[in-house]
Amino acid sequence: MTAVPALQLEHVSKTIGGLTILEDISLTVQPGERRAIIGPNGAGKTTLLNVIAGFLPATRGRVIVFGRDVTRLPAHRRVDVGLLKTNQQPAVFQELTTRQNILIALLRGRHRLLGLTGQVNSDRAVQREAERVLEEWGLLDVSDIEVRHLPHGYQRRVELAARFALRPRLLLLDEPAAGLAVDEIPAFIERLAQLPRDMTVVLVEHSMRVVFSFADRITVLHHGAVLADGTPDEIQRNEDVQAAYLAGAMRGRNAGTA
Ligand SMILES: Nc1ncnc2c1ncn2[C@@H]1O[C@H](COP(=O)(O)OP(=O)(O)OP(=O)(O)O)[C@@H](O)[C@H]1O
């Protein structure tokens, strides 16, 4: 018996203001898979993640998560099936400390409620778990600093730690390496590699270093449609992909900027 896919897109299209942004996209992501979605600027990658997460309704087609048709569910209801998305800008509580951000994420995960500070302080087990997450993510040194005072790379790390702490079954990462310094990328790649395999990850990313070290399979979008889909080796050898995107992106990689 084959496992129920983590994500199925069936003929998904998205039109905004008469403009076709996504056209007839079908793809299947297996449980535990690491899928990267790459393509030139404006190819439709972020729009696709927003359609999967429910922030934008599909104009046509179906979105199925772990066998459940979520096409008509709003984003907050898709969280109940274990789906979480990060944004290009870190979504963190700026006025709260790093520790408070992690505590709130853990409480939300437990109770599926927005945690209040009073509840946070009373829950010892959650506090212990927060210390573990802070240590795991190298955030202990900044745990009592309000996030708004932290550099962008740290804010990104706080966001990812908070999202991962929620233990989503399907995690959508929108350019998680954006804003990280070049010397922060290897540790970030290492962190991604340690994610548990019961978590399925769909990653949109321009850094080819991150994509090729992380992905089991890669889907290439071009002008809102799937140009190619395959293993990293297949994608690297694909001449259409080379012409449309990869040659330029890999030059950036070799220059150390990607
Ligand atoms: N709300 C909108 N209204 C009109 N056009 C939009 C809207 N959102 C996105 N677009 C257009 O849709 C196309 C795809 O945008 P999208 O942000 O999904 O691309 P992307 O592949 O994520 O690009 P990038 O790599 O630059 O982030 C672009 O041409 C963009 O201008």
Automatic annotation (TrEMBL):
The ABC transporter domain, residue ranges: 7-248
Q: Please give the GO cellular component terms listed in this UniProt entry.
A: plasma membrane
Q: Name one Pfam family in it.
A: ABC_tran
**So which domain of life are we looking at?**
Bacteria
Q: Does the keyword Cell cycle apply?
A: no
| Keyword Ribonucleoprotein on entry | no
Q: Keywords in alphabetical order, please.
A: ATP-binding, Nucleotide-binding, Transport
Single GO molecular-function term? ATP hydrolysis activity
Q: Which InterPro entries match?
A: AAA+_ATPase, ABC_AA/LPS_Transport, ABC_transporter-like_ATP-bd, BCA_ABC_TP_C, P-loop_NTPase
> Protein name, please?
Putative branched amino acid related transport system, bifunctional protein
This protein's species is Thermomicrobium roseum (strain ATCC 27502 / DSM 5159 / P-2)
Phylogenetic placement of the source organism: Bacteria, Pseudomonadati, Thermomicrobiota, Thermomicrobia, Thermomicrobiales
